[in-house]
Amino acid sequence: xxxxxxxxxxxxxxxxxxxxxxxxxxxxxxxxxxxxxxxxxxxxxxxxxxxxxxxxxxxxxxxxxxxxxxxxxxxxxxxxxxxxxxxxxxxxxxxxxxxxxxxxxxxxxxxxxxxxxxxxxxxxxxxxxxxxxxxxx
Length: 137
Ligand SMILES: [Zn+2]
What we know:
Elements: H1 5-20, E1 32-38, E2 43-47, H2 57-67, E3 73-81, E4 87-90, H3 94-102, E5 108-113, E6 118-123
Parallel strand pairs: 3-5
Antiparallel strand pairs: 1-2, 1-3, 3-4, 5-6
The structure holds zinc ion.
The site of zinc ion has 6 residues, from α3.
């Protein structure tokens, strides 16, 4: 799906979160910022937490949304710094994709297509084809 005006605004919000937290770690290139837009219209922000058990910015923002009672998520986006000082949208890692699947979030995710050098919006279910489903044995 192509991005709409609201998607571009979410990316801008995420970029602002990234810029506002550039001093968080000694290497700003390791900072990732996310924005989760709930179906209620509320915006939740997240920044990755770097420890021995790091937590992705998407999960921080998503956890905040869930803790505030949100149960339907509209869109998720993450951004990070490039080495040249510009920013870019980054696709969620495997663990985040698994989290979106396990929470059964019918959400849109703004991703980068590195090969085509474009940013687009996909359904979370498209990010994890052939997911593991445990039988009730
Ligand atoms: Zn992740």
